[in-house]
Amino acid sequence: MGIDFPGVRPRGNSIVIDFNFNGTRCRESLRIKPTKTAVREAVRKREAILFEIAMGNFDYGKHFPNSKNALKFSKNKSALVTVEETLKQWIKKAEMRCQHSTIRDYNSAIYYHLIPAFGQITLEDFNVSYVYDWLDEINISNKRINNVLGPLRQALQDAFYDGIIEQNPMDRFRYLSPETREPQPFNQDEINRILNQLEGQCRNLIQFAFWSGLRTSELIALRWQDVDLPNNRVHIRTAIVRKREKTTKTVSGLRTVELQPKAREAIEAQATCNGQSLRVFHDPSSDTPWAGDHIIRKRLWIPALNAADVTYRNPYQTRHTFASMLLSAGKNPLWVAQQMGHKDWGMIRKTYGRWIPASTGN
């Protein structure tokens, strides 16, 4: 190119920057075509790096986040590593010291629960509130929850020992009591008191939750195109978890839910608010779709229960309430299972057995 810049040179379709940091010679490639303008920009970048090194505030990961040296030299390593990467690195080490059956259980927890729920979060951003939000969305025993969270706790502890994080956020999470988490449905009086504390779109959302049995992730993902009022039903096709749309939790979760009278009433009221939008339910403070279930819980659900003087249960209990009401009314357990997205009625019998009338359950 006819221009010589110390520490900067073209190489193929990239530009290499050469500098010394902490007694180590570092070479980093910029994946850009080495035009004269690009080379001059690389020179300025190198000068900025040298100045930051001289001032003692050079952050390797900020300049070269994808470099192998970023984690080695970065002042904020936790911003460069995700929970998924941490779990995968931990399980590789565990494979050398644990029995095959133990590794199988760990892999089940990691790939079925932990990576889908937390994988894309960086260690810098991860905190125990994500775990409590996750608890609101699942329906497994406390014993299983403790087993699932075991690899996460240990992987984060390794990250702490390696100096990537300053403390293990799971130290703030207490293992749950081993008893199975029993459904704690709301009675009709409690439902009325809660709904009386709400109005407009907030009331429509919670009323629909009580009378549809949808998970919160399914509620906030519900689209008007999936609402079929002429046939009195809604089609459940999507869920939103961590601000990302995905298909429902299981194949059986792809289902059609018949609208109970109170659920239809809520949908019809909601149609007058935002019937032309993509999503059915909106956050009235911004008139945009709810960003996540945790916002509903903190901004809407907890204040409503407090104002109604109703003992706190998480939003998932609206789903338990739906099931218990229908079963107590004598509805066929298999039909209830289909409405809730279970593949058979075994889960219904196990979880809600005491609400099934003897004549119905036989």
Describe the strand arrangement of the main beta sheet, using strand numbers. Answer: 1-2-3
| pLDDT < 50 stretches | none
Instruction: Report the span from N to C terminus.
Output: 86 Å
Q: What number of domains?
A: 3
Q: What is the subunit arrangement here?
A: single chain
Total strands: the figure is: 10
Q: Per CATH, what is the topology of the largest domain?
A: hpI Integrase, Chain A
Q: Could you name the CATH class of the largest domain?
A: Mainly Alpha
- Named at the architecture level, the CATH assignment of the largest domain is Orthogonal Bundle
Structure description:
With 362 residues, this protein is mainly alpha-helical. It has three domains: 68 residues, no CATH class; 90 residues, Tyrosine recombinase, N-terminal domain (DNA polymerase, domain 1, Orthogonal Bundle); 174 residues, hpI Integrase, Chain A, CATH 1.10.443. The strands form four sheets. A three-stranded antiparallel β-sheet has the order 1-2-3, with helices on one face. Strand 9 and strand 10 form a beta hairpin. The protein starts with 7 loop residues before the first strand and ends with a helix.
How would you summarize this macromolecular structure in one to three sentences?
With 362 residues, the chain is mainly alpha-helical. It has helices spanning 36-55, 60-63, 68-73, 83-94, 100-118, 128-135, 142-161, 188-196, 200-212, 216-221, 261-274, 293-308, 317-328, 333-340, 346-352, 358-361, and strands at 8-11, 14-21, 24-30, 227-228, 233-236, 238-241, 244-247, 255-258, 282-283, 288-289.
